[in-house]
Amino acid sequence: MVVNIFAMSKGVHLKDLPILEALGYIFVPILSFLVLKERATKRTIISMVIILVGIYIFFQ
Question: N or C: the chain end with fewer CB closer than 10 Å?
Answer without folding.
Answer: C
